[in-house]
Amino acid sequence: MRKALVFVAAFALVLVAGAAVAFMATPGDDVASEAVEKPTTTTSVEEKEHPPTTEKVKEEPVREPPAEEPKEEPKEEPKDEPKEEAKDTTPPEIVITFPENGQHFERREVAFEGKTEPGARVFAGDYEADVDVEGKWRIVLVLTHDGGNHATFKAIDEAGNKATASVKAFYDAPDKPKEKDETDDKEEPKSYEFSANQKYGSCAEETPYDKWYGKGEPGTGIWIGSEYGSANTEIGESGEWYLKVNFPEAPCGETFEVVLETDEGHRKVYSFTRICEEKGDAGHDDSK
After folding, report:
1. For position 212, which CATH number holds?
2. Can you give the pLDDT of all 288 residues of the chain as single tens digits?
3. Rounded distance, CA 106 to CA 144, Å?
4. Residues 163, 105 within the same domain
5. Is residue 79 domain-resident?
6. Which DSSP category does 134 fall into?
7. Is 43 exposed, middle or buried (0-12, 13-18, 19+ CB in 10 A)?
8. Does 43 map to a domain?
9. Can you give the residue range of the structural domain that contains 245?
10. Which phi and psi angles does 179 have, rounded to 5°?
11. How many other β-carbons are positioned within 10 Å of the β-carbon of residue 262?
12. What is the pLDDT of residue 283?
């Protein structure tokens, strides 16, 4: 459009210039005199006029400023997320190397040994075994029962996986004495059969005497005597008794009766003789 306007303006300028030339070629009188008085100034048409041209001016397309393209926001590069490691779900191995299943022992304390995964822990109930870096474990337990004892061990690895193993060990207790019945603890009352024995039967001492001894029920009262002398005693806790009886009034050479009686109704009769010969064969030696 702009080029068309330029072309029209140039064409109009050419027409004006032509008219001016024609006017100069046929001047009037006034113009002639004026022409004589003033020097003629030649104007170069080339300087002011443009020759008409028939060439069609090529119209250049109007370039519109390029539309601003929307700015792309910088994309955030995806961050490397940490990769999840595969979770360990494999139970640890646990092996009992000692004792053998069914082994017998004559002692109650036994050292149990075995092997497990390195880093794992081994338990026997609430008690923890000693485990070295190679996974070898050891623990001492007590066989509490006579006969068979079951021992169970649990291994726990670092991931929390568990495994168990068990073994049976026997405790052979030594022979025990036969257990007493409750009635055996009670002592049966002893039965005492009464007995009484005369030691001499005669005596040649200045004061004649004789001795009696025997067994019987503890606490039983005993009396021994005659018209020439008497004495009494009580059977002790051992069940044995002893009694010496003097006969100071006994006549020489005469034999008389001596009676023994107890609280329980026992009665025995003995004979005694006083010997008046000086230190005769009938003398007594009480040291024997």
Report:
1. 2.60.40.2550
2. 444 444 544 454 544 445 444 444 444 444 333 444 444 444 444 444 555 555 555 556 656 666 666 666 666 666 666 666 788 899 999 999 999 999 999 999 999 999 999 999 999 999 999 999 999 999 999 999 999 999 999 999 999 999 999 999 999 988 766 665 555 556 666 677 888 899 998 998 989 999 999 998 888 999 999 999 899 998 888 888 989 999 998 999 889 999 999 988 889 999 999 998 754 444 555 544
3. 12
4. yes
5. no
6. T
7. exposed
8. yes
9. 195-274
10. -65, 135
11. 20
12. 53
Q: Tokens 């027409």 — which residue?
A: 15
Per-residue confidence (pLDDT) for residue 19, from 0 to 100: 45
Q: Please, are residues 243 and 211 in contact by the beta-carbon 8 Å criterion?
A: yes
Question: Are 166 and 206 contained in the same domain?
Answer: no
Distances (CA, A) of 256 to 114, 227, 265: 96, 9, 22
Q: Is residue 282 part of a domain?
A: no
With beta carbons less than 8 A apart as the criterion, state whether 258 and 272 touch.
yes
Q: Are residues 143 and 205 in the same domain?
A: no
For tokens 């092996």, the residue is 95
Q: Coil, strand or helix: which one is 20?
A: helix
CB 120 within 8 A of CB 92: yes
**How far apart, in Å, are the Cα atoms of 252 and each of 17, 95, 203, 222, 228?**
221, 103, 10, 27, 12
Is the domain of 158 the same as that of 204?
Answer: no
Same domain for 254 and 217? yes
Total count of domains within the chain: 3
User: Tokens representing 240?
Assistant: 């044995």
> Are residues 155 and 106 part of one domain?
yes
